[in-house]
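Notebook entry, structure prediction.
Reason for the run: the old model in the group folder had no record of what sequence produced it. Starting over properly, with the input documented here first.
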Amino acid sequence: MEKLLAYTNGYMETLRVVDVEDIDMLLDEVIEKSKIEEVKGRILREYLSILNYKNDFIPFIEQQNVTIDPEKIFGESEEKTFWRKTNVVDKYNLGNITLDIPGVILQVQTNILRTQSLVADAILGQGEALDIFNARAQDAISIRENITNLETIQQLEVINSIDDSNVKAEMYKKVFEDCCNCPCQHITINKQ
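New structure, fully documented this time:
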């Protein structure tokens, strides 16, 4: 459990930090006996519920009554009362998302990141970098490039299956057009 109560008389060597369950022990050590109940009441009143960022009261500590039954050992029962921190969970609504935050939310600060593109939104994980039209256009370009690559592969397979090198060169020229703007003589390769 976190430490909830602290006492100091202004000097660091007197600093005492304890859990809320130990309030009686702390007050007994540092407060005049006749003032303990008054001081304890004022402290606990502040902790019973705490205002969150929406000015809603959130229950923070509660009184717990426990019956200690040591009859088997000492022969008597005893009821003990102590204060403890509750399992505090505050809620924060972020559009249509509700976040459960452990503890009390005391302050909320909203910052807007200005950007000229949608990339920041995509990097932060809240959106896509492209709208639906551009995403589909990009998919269409990718499909067209894939089909062009498949056509080229098929054309190369057909050209490679030709045995005559002159016909092969002529077909290569037809498929891939001229390699340069200069007039070229056909080179005949004779197989030996």
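Summary: The helical segments are 23-30, 36-48, 119-123, 132-160, 165-176.
The old model has been moved to the deprecated folder.
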